[in-house]
Amino acid sequence: MVNISRSLLIILTLIGSTVASAEQMQTTLKIGVAANFAEPLRRLVTAYNQQNDHKIDAKISVAATGVLYQQVRHGAPFDLVFSADKKRPMLMEDEGFALENSRFTYAIGQLALWSATNPKTALDALQNHPGKIAIAAPHLAPYGKAAREALVSLGLWRKYHRQVITANNISQTYQQTRTGAVEFGIISHSQLLLSDIGSGVLIDRNLHEPIEQQMIILNSCKDVELARDFQRFILSDSSQKFIIEMGYADPETPIDEQQ
Fold this sequence. Notes:
Elements: H1 2-24, E1 26-34, H2 38-51, E2 55-63, H3 65-73, E3 80-82, H4 87-94, E4 104-109, E5 111-115, E6 133-136, H5 142-153, H6 157-160, E7 164-167, H7 170-178, E8 184-188, H8 189-194, E9 199-202, E10 211-217, H9 224-235, H10 237-245, H11 255-258
């Protein structure tokens, strides 16, 4: 009986050690991400975990870039932030919320005009469209700001500015359009590629300021080494190729050659 008890104790100790070791190989990263990049980020976390022994348990919070910035200012304990612009990460850096030399461009965003009901969506359709259109709120979401700039460039802002439906982020814009609340929405090109209904068209990037999306590590990060390793993974050739396939522009290709 004594020998059995000792053997059982040894087994339990080994099991405990294995569990502890497994726990040590997985670290939680709290990530704030702009709504347009939420799904690509989830897939990139999965790819990272498939390739590395040290796994990321990603706790992902999705919001408009402007909201993420305000959350950081009010003490949100993010480890990493994936913004839809470079302005907010620069502010986080300048205001002392982020680590130096941790700000990098991870994607170049693109806009798309999309309809869940129109089988042949085209920009020309906006010229005579009598109804409302949906965009993200320009003061909160860089994609909303770019959408307004595109409408201005097309000479359509005066026509639509009183009947534009604005959402807090680009995901809400997508939902407003998908449910038929409006016929047309200006969403991210990535959302268009992921959509299983309707039709859409890529919007010329010459019509708006570049959507340069940057990520940054915050001072509140609990595992800086892991966060930096994940950043390196995001910037790797394979991840960048995947991001472009998900609807983002190739940063190495001039705008005029991209269209």
